[in-house]
Amino acid sequence: MRKLPIYLGVDVGTQGIRCIAWQNNVIIARHSIALTTSNPSSGWAVQEAEQIWQTFVNVVKPVVEQCQSRGDIRGIGLDATSSIMLVGSNGSPKSQVLLWMDVRAEKYAQTIGGLVGHPESAELPWAKALWLYDNSPHLFGGTNYLVEVADWINWNLTGEWTRSRGSALLKWHATPKSDLPQWANLFPEIIKCLPPRIVGVAEKVGPVTPDIARRLGLKSHEVSVAGPIIDAYAGAIGSATLEPHCMALILGSSSCELFHDYSFAPTAGLWGPFEDVYHVGLDVLEAGQPSTGSVVRWAEKNLGQGQTLETLDQMANQVEPGCEGLRVLPAFQGIRSPWPNARARGAIHGLSLGHHVGHVMRAVYEGTGVDIRRTMDTLKSGTTRRIVASGGGTRSKLWLQIISDICGLPLEIADDDSVARGAAMLAAKADGYIANLNDLKVDWPVIHPSERVGKYQELYHDYLVEFPTYRPEDRVNLPR
Q1: What is the pLDDT at residue 477?
Q2: How many Cβ atoms are within 10 Å of 77's Cβ, its own excluded?
Q3: Is 205 left (phi over 0), alpha (psi -120 to 50) or beta?
Q4: Are 13 and 52 in contact (CB under 8 A)?
Q5: Residue 345's pLDDT is what?
Q6: CATH code of the domain in which 258 resides
Q7: Residues 97 and 142 in one domain
Q8: Beta-carbon neighbour count of residue 395 at 10 Å?
Q9: What pTM was estimated for this model as a whole?
Q10: Mean pLDDT for the chain?
Q11: pLDDT tens across 265-311, in order?
């Protein structure tokens, strides 16, 4: 009996790299390794490219070994953050990797914002590209490339220099008819450094080279690499949220909200709408914050006195909603939406001698929950009828309950493998094994709003009033 094909999904995240082997809708192997992020200055966030690649190899190889007797690996799918770097034509890094969450390029974001006609986040790659050009002009021109991490990993795998069509659309202001915005010709030096070949989402990039196949332990180099997608969008695919009126909530180091429907009007402060990203007839609006799970981790590391997150959650669960007046504004790395502000910073407000770390943890959960609800409220009432949460943040059931209470909607809880599963589905689609990226159907566990939902509607309003970054000029129209 012929064994079913296996597809590898690799999630290149901020905190680490995760690989799964996906066979007939079942995950048969997985492995993950952490990455190191440096913050050399306020607002900066960088990684080293060589560490990323070596970690990629070290994550994929043991998964391949676990699959040896289970069937043939036919494809590799990849997702990654929109993090950029300069490399030589031989792949050698010429700069550090500027992570998506790096917001040093704020003044350049203002330049791009003037071109696109609305505020631009300093997280986005055009602003970073301008910063790199201003600070290292000698690296532009010649044979160097300006690439995203996913492009560079795919070059390592296949020897093909490509540029992701999905990322071009989602992060580089491409249009449905062009891979570059109309104003891109204002920056010819940057355009010359972009790889000329564009690959679409779930399109074949090429086969893995024989040398890399041997290094990864693959039986054959006839393993196709699929066109990548941004990590949050892979999470939407792998958590089965590609349906109208559904929000994919990805709780990682950052938070990302992806709103799906058949059509959207442009909405101030949200990215998009992006037309039919997944090729299933749905448009997307994107929102989120650059620091969400990272704020939870900050509180755990700096205030938790070595206690586990589970123990801290138990302490936080004993605290009443509102945390006796304690508030946390989680803008530790700026604000992404609905009003981008790279200079915004976090705040812990209302501390008294009666507060302890459990109050702070619960206030972090409440502040991040308010951010999610605030973004939902920028859309018309009723647009979001279903929320599916995925990512590392779903390990905290208390956090999920608070989000459900603040948003007033049930939360379906996808598993930890959703993002990597979405990446594997890219490979399966490129290989023709599945027809569409919305073929996955799953019944996830559900958390329903509790009896505290009314209290949290009051708290939501209080947050909007108390923090100036929540648009104080709109206070007269705040929802009750």
Answers
A1: 44
A2: 32
A3: alpha
A4: no
A5: 86
A6: 3.30.420.40
A7: yes
A8: 15
A9: 0.88
A10: 91
A11: 887 778 888 988 999 999 999 998 888 888 999 999 999 999 999 99
Q: Which two tokens stand for residue 248?
A: 């994919």
What one-character-per-residue DSSP string does 134-151 give? HH-GGGSSTT-EEEEHHH
Report the DSSP beta bridge partners of residue 341. 335
Q: Among 181, 210, 231, which residue terminates a domain?
A: 231
Domain count, the chain: 2
Residue 35 lies in domain: 6-231
- Regarding whether 396 and 311 lie in a shared domain, the answer is yes
Strand order in the sheet with 84-87: 46-47, 97-98, 84-87, 145-148
CA-CA distance, 240 to 259, in Å (whole number)? Answer: 13
pLDDT at 21 over 80: yes
Report the C-alpha dihedral over residues 163, 168, 171, 177, rounded to 10 degrees: 180
Q: Which of 11, 418, 100, 386 is nearest to 235 (CA)?
A: 418
Q: Are residues 156 and 269 in the same domain?
A: no
pLDDT tens digits, one per residue of 277-288 = 999 999 999 998
Are 184 and 56 in the same domain?
yes
Of 180, 197, 231, which residue is a domain's last?
A: 231
pLDDT-based confidence at 378, cuts 50/70/90? Answer: confident
**Structural domain includes residue 420:** no
Q: What is the pLDDT of residues 219-257, one digit of tens each?
A: 877 899 999 999 999 999 999 999 999 999 999 888 899
Please state, in angstroms and rounded to a whole number, the distance separating the CA atoms of residues 317 and 160: 51
Residues 17, 11 contacting (CB under 8 angstroms): yes
What percent of the chain has pLDDT above 90? 75
Residues 327 and 458 placed together within one structural domain of the fold: yes
For residue 302, how many other CB atoms are within 10 A of its CB?
A: 10
> 75 forms bridges with which residues in the sheet?
7, 224
Dist CA 277 CA 235 (whole Å): 13
Q: Which two tokens stand for residue 202?
A: 């779930």
384 and 323 together in one domain: yes
* Co-location of 178 and 69 in the same domain: yes
pLDDT at 137: 95
Q: Are residues 104 and 251 in the same domain?
A: no
